[in-house]
């Protein structure tokens, strides 16, 4: 069957009518358009499908009507429903269940949790606490810090002096390092140069942040040179970063002649230097 809508909002139908889907008050087929009585309502939308024997229409006032085969019953005249759109008529009463128009999917991308948290970092409007490092403020949220970090979870318990305060001064670490750490808690990412990551590795070690520690090690590896490998090796030993220590040692072993002539190598403390030489000897660095 076929439905047609005029510019004036009048509804016409024709075709098969075995279930009253034409809305003419009977089940007689129509070979030419016949006006469907809608009690003076002006229609703005009509709905029909060749897969089902049901029809629907919506008036300009938002009323939705249906007629035809509705769950085994035949409605030969339009019946007012409680639906707010014609799609609901088909989803509730069509047999088989079909849609009268092609579905479209709108890809409306909202912010993910990480994206929303990233935007909240260092926001003085929504934050409830700030850290002052080297005279500069970093605005954060206690709840985020407590959820993401065991150190802060303990810090903000009532037995700590810092609990209840909205400003805490930090002197153990640089501003760049501490900001990178707090931002990591919001974004799960680290944005630091390899040479600055050593300070963050120190912080990760002090705060027992294993994941952050591994991330720092990966960043540091990318910046290793013959000039700084001795210093990075010493830092890895100090902060118990075993993977980074082994990486630095292998790098130094492959560039031994250049490394031992650097200032960083000459500044190694005795215990680190002795252990480095011992390991190098075992690895066969002094065969010749």
Automatic annotation (TrEMBL):
BTB domain location: 127-194
RCC repeat intervals: 9-59
One Pfam short name: BACK
PANTHER family reported in the protein's UniProt record: BTK-BINDING PROTEIN-RELATED, ULTRAVIOLET-B RECEPTOR UVR8
Highest taxon of source: Eukaryota
Keywords assigned: Repeat
Protein name according to UniProt: BTB domain-containing protein
